[in-house]
Amino acid sequence: MTTAARDEIDGNLSTLEFWALPQERRLAAFARLRELDHPAFFQELKLPFVKTGAGFYALARHADVVEASRSPHIFSSEPCSNSIADLPRFLARYFGSMINMDDPRHAKIRRIVSRAFTPRVLEKMEDDLQRSATRIVDDLLAKGSTDFVTDVAARLPLQVICDMMGIPEHVRPMVYDRTNLILGLGDPEYMGGKNYARDGITRFGALYGLLKVLAAGYELNHLAMKLARQRRRNPGDDLVSALISANVDGESLTDQEIGSFFILLVVAGNETTRNAMSHGLKLLTDNPEQRALLLEDFDAHIPGAVEEIVRLATPVIQFRRTLTRDHVMNGHEYKAGDKVLLFYNSANRDETVFENPDAFDITRSPNPHVGFGGPGPHFCLGANLARREITVMYRELFTRVPGIRATGEPDRLFSSFINGIKHLPCAF
Ligand code: HEM
To answer: Cα dist. 401→129, 204, 224, 288 in Å?
Structure first.
C-alpha cells in the first residue's frame, strides 16, 4: 500500500465529503482498507452539542466483522451501537432500545418480541402480505411509469410494520415521514435544503438537525404511549399489547422501554426492506441475464436473489461496538474503551470470502453475507420478515409487470449509516 493511498483513506472515512462521494469511489476506498494488515483508525468528526470520542477503528474485513459480532462480551453494544458518538441523553431516551443493550437485559427483551417474528406468525401473515402486494401492483398499473421507491418499495414494509404494531391508518403517513427523517438526518431533503457535505456543519445546522430528530422521537413516543393506554384498556394481538403485558423477571417494561422499542421497530421495519427492494430493481435492470434467470424459474431462484440483493445493497452500512477490555483480534491489539465500526458493506465485498464480489449472481452459493448483521445476539430480528416481504412483492411485480425496469440513476440518501435510495424512476 502506497503512502498516497493510505493518506487518501485517512482523509476520507471520517468526513462528510467521503459519504457524498459516488458509490464506486467509496467502495474502492473500502477495498483498500481490506488490503491493510491492520484496521485503520479514523478521528471522529467533531459535532456541536454532541460528545464525540477520539475516533474509531474501521473493521472492513469479513473475518473481523464476524468475530466482533459473535463476541458481544468483548465487543459491546453499550452504551451505543447505532451511532458513532454516544447518543446525548435527551436522544437516548427515544433511540436507546435493545439494539444498544448487552445480555442479559437484551436477551430478555428480545425474547418478548421475538414471538412476533416466529415462522408460524410469518406464515399467518402471508395472506395479508399477498393482498397488500396485489393492491400495490394494481395501483402501479393504473398509474404507469412512476417513482419505484415511493409507489412500490416503501408501501409494503410500512403497511406490515404498522399492522404489527396496531397503528391506525390515518397516522401512518406521519410514521413514514418521521422514520425517514430520523435516518435521513444530514440529507439536504430532510434538512431544509442545507448541504452539510458541501458547506460543513454550523452550530445552527447541528441544532436544527438535533431538534428535528428530537421532535420526531417525541412524536413517535407520544404515539406509542397513546396506543399503550388504549391497549391497556382493550388488549389486542398486536405488538404493543405484547409489550405492555410483557414480564421481564417479574418486572414490566417501563414506558421509556416501550417507547424506545416501538421507535426501533418502526424505524427498522420501514427504512431497510424498501432500500433492498429498490436496489434490487436497479440490479436486475443492470443485469438482464440475471433477471432472465429469475423470471425463468421464480420460485427456484428468488431465495438466492434476495440474499444476493441484500449482500450487494447492504441497506445498513455499519453498526458500532465498544471494547469492554483489552483484546487482540486478528493480530491487532485493541484497548478497553476503543470504538470499532463493523462495515457490513465492506465485509460483503471481501474478495477472500466472495469470488468476484462486485458481480450480481443470484445463484451464488454459499453466500455468507452479513447484510442482516454478523452471527450473534443482535442478528436482525426482522430478517425472515424482510425476506418474505421482498419475495411476495417481487413475485406479484414480476408476474404481472415482467417488463418493469429502472429508467434512471437512483437518487441516493446522503448517509454514513443507511445505503438508501430516496427515488428511483421506473417504467414498464
Ligand atoms: C433488508 C432488510 C433489513 C436489513 C438489511 C436489516 C439489517 C439489520 C442489521 C445489520 C442489524 C444488526 C444490528 C447489530 O448487530 O447491532 C439489524 C438488527 C435489527 N433489525 Fe433489521 N434489517 C432489516 C429488516 C428489518 C425488519 C423488517 C425489522 C422489523 C420489522 C428489523 C428489526 C431489527 C431489530 C429489532 C434489530 C435489533 C436486534 C437486536 O438488537 O437484537 N429489521 N437489522
So the answer is: 18, 47, 38, 15
Closest-lying ligand 1 atom to the alpha carbon of residue 101: 40
Q: Is the CB of 418 under 6 A from ligand 1?
A: no
C-alpha cell at 223: 404515539
57 three-state secondary structure: strand
CATH number, domain of 375, equals 1.10.630.10
Ligand 1 site, residue 99, Cβ cutoff 6 A: yes
CA of 333 to the centre of ligand 1 (A): 29
The three-state secondary structure class of 392 is: helix
Say if residue 6's pLDDT is above 60.
Answer: no
Query: 168-192, pLDDT tens digit by residue?
Result: 999 999 999 999 999 998 898 888 7
Q: Give the span between the Cα atoms of 176 and 149, in whole angstroms.
A: 13
| C-beta of 110 in contact with ligand 1 (< 6 A) | yes
Q: What is the pLDDT of residues 45-91, one digit of tens each?
A: 887 778 888 899 999 999 999 999 999 999 999 999 988 888 888 88
Q: pLDDT tens-digit profile of 253-271?
A: 889 889 999 999 999 999 9
Q: Measured in angstroms, how far is the CA atom of residue 289 from the centroid of ligand 1?
A: 31
Domain count, the chain: 1
Rounded distance from Cα 272 to ligand 1 centre (Å): 8
* Residues 294, 324 contacting (CB under 8 angstroms): no
Task: Read off the amino acid at residue 263.
Answer: I
Ligand 1 atom closest to 275 (CA): 1
Mutation to probe ligand 1, out of 67, 175, 380, 415 (largest number of atoms < 8 A from CB): 380
- Tell how far the Cα of 281 is from the centroid of ligand 1, in angstroms: 21
Instruction: For residue 314, give the nearest of 363, 355, 373 by alpha carbon.
Output: 373
Residue type, 200: G
pLDDT tens, residue by residue, 321-367: 999 999 999 999 999 999 999 999 999 999 999 999 999 999 999 99
Domain holding 387, by residue range, is 3-427
